[in-house]
Amino acid sequence: MKFIHIADVHLGAAPDSGKAYSEIRPKELWDTLEQVIDVCEREKTDLLLIAGDLFHRQPLLRELKEVNYMFSRLTHTKVVLIAGNHDYIRRDSYYRTFQWNQNVYPLFGEEMEYIEFPELQTAVYGFSYYTKEISKARYDEVYACHMQPFEILLAHGGDEKHIPIHREKLESTGFDYIALGHIHKTEEIPETVKKQQILYAGALEPVDKNDTGIHGYIEGEINVQGVRTRKVACAKREYVPLTVTVDEMQTSGSLKAVLKKMVEEKGVENLYKIVLTGYRDADITFDTSHMDSYGNMIEILDKTRPLYDFAHLAEENGQNLLGEYIRMFQGCPENSTEYKALCAGVEAILTNMH
Ligand SMILES: [Mn+2]
């Protein structure tokens, strides 16, 4: 039995609005889902498992029709999904009444239910969110009923307000595979075969600047030997954290050129979170509002410190406040709070003196 596990597609989200790429970003989320569906069709995947938050908010009727059309193109694959905390089954949710194509099996109950696929010797279990938050550890009480040789659980949550998950409890539930959703972060997963696997797919596409790393889906196969899984990257963009160390030769202009080159090397399609560190020339301040050459820098955090020659400054200002101030901090280590106070104070005094 071959499956593909995705989660947190967040259709309808518009990440980083106001940036150069943000207008096409909502469409990209749909395109990537379509790509996954193409893979299912090409590889004759038996089950497409969607572990919650297919939508970022309550789905519109036309969005459900579009998604259903995409699913209906699958000639072999069956689709099983649950609703997560973002697309929870609200009283007026279109999820309640929508007529899905016959190959789509929503597990939209508030209590645990399962669907059996005897031809695949597989049963898939799950329940959906009816509220935005569920603080009860509901997965602590679930178990496989052994209706079929292979049993899968779709589960969504893993933080305090969204069904806290205790891994050791999940391990004793008897499921062969637990397809998790909700945590967007992805981890490198080496290809493995185990009797049981419990995995987060991570967001299909990164939708928040904290969703760093390579995103995609999990491809798996279950047979009598166990569960084989492998992570497949397919997201169009990646949030890349970058730390750039400056030196006293750097000016705003030269730093902008350095950043531009780094972005070109790591991909102009990616999104960057930049931290500047190191010592800059004490006369220079970096104008970070004009450094985003490609419009893909989500944030630039300037943590650089001015490079003062404190000994020289103290000597030159033997008799005044500046000299006295510097001598007060004599010998403090460079990463201490005192050192920070020294730098900030010197900067303030110098600004006042000029
Ligand atoms: Mn979620």
Automatic annotation (TrEMBL):
What's in the keyword line of the UniProt record? Exonuclease, Hydrolase, Nuclease
Q: Which InterPro entries match?
A: Calcineurin-like_PHP (IPR004843), DNA_Repair-Maintenance_Comp (IPR050535), Metallo-depent_PP-like (IPR029052), Mre11_N (IPR041796)
Q: Which GO terms describe its molecular function?
A: exonuclease activity
Q: Which Pfam families match?
A: Metallophos
* Domain called Calcineurin-like phosphoesterase: residue spans: 1-185
Q: Which SUPFAM superfamilies match?
A: Metallo-dependent phosphatases
Q: Which Gene3D superfamilies match?
A: 3.60.21.10
Do the record's keywords include Nuclease? yes
Q: Which family does it belong to?
A: Belongs to the SbcD family.
This chain's protein is named Nuclease SbcCD subunit D
Source organism per UniProt? Mediterraneibacter hominis
